[in-house]
Each structure stands twice: as C-alpha cells, then as structure tokens.
Amino acid sequence: MNTKQIEFILELAKTRNFNKAAENLCVSQPTMTYQIKSAEKEIGFEIFDRSGKGAVLTPAGSQFAGQLKSIYASLRSAIEQGQNFSRSVKNDIRIAMPIRSAVYFLPEAIRRFSSRYPDISITPSFDWYGCKESFLKGEQDILFAMDFEMKRVPDITRHHLFDSRFFLITDRNDPLSRQAKVTSADLAGRTLMVGGGSPPVLRAIQNRVVSEGKVTYFNSRDHDTTLTNVAAGRGVCIAPDFLNDHCEEFCWTPFDTAETIPCSLYTHKNEKRKAVKDFIKILQDFYR
Questions:
Q1: pLDDT computed for residue 90 by the predictor
Q2: Residues 4-8: contacts with CB under 8 Å, at least 24 apart
Q3: Which of 102, 106, 156, 258 suits 242 as a labelling partner, its CA being 20 to 30 A distant?
Q4: Residue whose C-alpha is closest to residue 190's, from 214, 225, 223
Q5: Tally of domains within the chain
Q6: Domain check: are 16 and 94 in the same one?
Q7: CATH number of the domain encompassing residue 49
Q8: Dihedral pair phi/psi, residue 242, rounded to 5°
Q9: Do 8 and 80 reside in the same domain of the chain?
Q10: Looking at residue 84, what is its pLDDT?
C-alpha cells in the first residue's frame, strides 16, 4: 500500500462520499474508486460499505483506519524531516520538553547555534506527559526536566540550567498584581488553586499556605485548567516561573518563599557530539 492509497482511505473515511473525497484530493472519482478497491484487494478485507448514499467504514475498516491515521502522521513527519535533511542539514539535535515556555531562551539559542553550525538543525518537541519517555527510549538527544524527576535514572548526564522560582498568578487587574512581592498573609480570604500535577516542593508550599487557615482551596486538574479558573476569577495559584508563557494575559508576581525547583538539561551518557555540548553551553550562557 502506498502513501496515496492511505491518503485516499483517510479522506473517504472523513467525507463518506467518493465524489467529495475525490474533489478534496483533486483527483477523479474513478481514480478514487480504483485506489480504494486496489487497497482492499491488497489487505484482504473491505474497508468501506458502499451504498447509494456514500461509503461508511466497516467494523474492520474502522479499526484499520484508526491505526492508519497514526501511521500516516508519523510517515508524513518522517518524510518532512527527510526532505529537510536532503536539502541542507547533515545532522539533527532533538530536544524534548514538556511545554514551550520551559526553555524561554530556546529560540535565541537556536539562532546563535545556527550561525556556528548552519548544517545542523535543532528539532524541539513538546509533550507534557511523554517527553521523558521519548528521551529514555532514545528518540530524543536532550531532555529538559525538573531534577527530582531524574534522580534515579541511570546512564544520563545532567547539565544544570536554572533554579525555577515561584510566582503568584493572578488576573492583571487583581490588587495583588501591583505588589513587588506576595506573601502568604496577602492571600487571606482568597481561593488558592492546588494540585494539578504539582511537583513535591510546590505541594509543600501549597499545604503550608492552606494550613495557615487564611485561604480556601480548590483542586485543579492541570495547569491549563488552573489558568482557566484564574481567568474566570475563581482563584489564584502559585507556580514555578518556567511555566510563564509571557502572553501578558496574567500577572506573575514573585511569591515570598526560599524554595526553588532545580531544572536541567539531560543527555545520554554515551552522547559525545561536540555540537550537542556547544548547544547546551549556549543555553547555559543565556540563563547565566
């Protein structure tokens, strides 16, 4: 089965109409019909039930199309990366992080690195829950992570980047946004968003503020949900500053606490490329 046939199958599964699918892909309806039949003959089962009203996935076709969608996305990504390499890139450094804001100076670092290594690309990927696993499977060269996450991981090298401080996130019109620093006492009578996958040190801060008995609290599922609740006026939250996306929607005011979250870049123990070492040093220089 070729990539065109995969594209035809996925488009027909979406439109459920041969004419519409053919029109969307800029081919004739007979071509669409022929390619679908050829694919079904090759795999040995019918993907679609045809009727006068169009085409719907068979039970087997539904399962097949679901798997095919994931495969096609990976295939397209591989083709695009191959096209990039075939033009000018001789090597690639892959860096994984949970969220774009985690390494705020990444664009500047890439710009500086590219001026020294024009034939080496930097490919970032963002996945809150999967970046660590992707790195450990060898799919990424560099990982941004909080140090506590990597304490017992073998065969890696740590490159300290920064210690993330804590800030109070409020609406920009909140009276607390006009303060230079916020203390626990300033939160009296407020609702504090807690939970949401908070790292241990943040949970300790949240528990300490709540235990003083001056605030109520509200359990939030994740950081995006927390920000939505803050924007809706349901409360405020304390967060490490590496989550600050600098979008100007919220006010981030320093919170009065000595705790920080050490954050680092990690490489595999067997990583020996000079370019990787130089790229990490560029990022470290920016943060210093």
A1: 66
A2: 4/35, 5/35, 5/36, 5/38, 5/39, 6/68, 6/71, 6/72, 6/75, 7/72, 8/32, 8/35, 8/36, 8/39
A3: 156
A4: 214
A5: 3
A6: no
A7: 1.10.10.10
A8: -70, -10
A9: yes
A10: 61
Instruction: Report the alpha-carbon distance of residue 141 to residue 119 in Å, rounded.
Output: 17
* The predicted structure's pLDDT at residue 2: 83
Which whole number is the average pLDDT over 150-162? 96
Looking at 67, 85, 103, the residue that finishes a domain is: 85
The model's confidence at residue 271, banded by pLDDT at 50, 70 and 90, is very high
For residues 15-30, give the mean pLDDT. 90
pTM of the model: 0.71
What range does the domain containing 230 cover?
166-259
Residue 275 sits in the same domain as residue 156:
yes
Residue 1's CB: how many other CB atoms inside 10 A?
12
Residue range 229-238: mean pLDDT, rounded: 94
For 181-216, b/e burial (b = at least 16 CB within 10 A) is: ebebebbeebbbbbbbebeebbeebbeebbeeeebe
Those residues with Cβ within 8 angstroms of residue 278's Cβ, 6 or more apart along the chain or in another chain = 113, 116, 117
Q: Tell whether 58 and 109 lie within a shared domain.
A: no
Rounded to whole angstroms, the Cα distance separating 144 from 7 reads 35
251 and 205 in a common domain: yes
Same domain, 59 and 181: no
Q: Which two tokens stand for residue 176?
A: 């607390």
* Token pair 């909080």: residue: 146
Residue found by looking up tokens 């300033």 in the block: 186
Give the highest mean pLDDT range of 48-62, 71-85, 138-152: 138-152
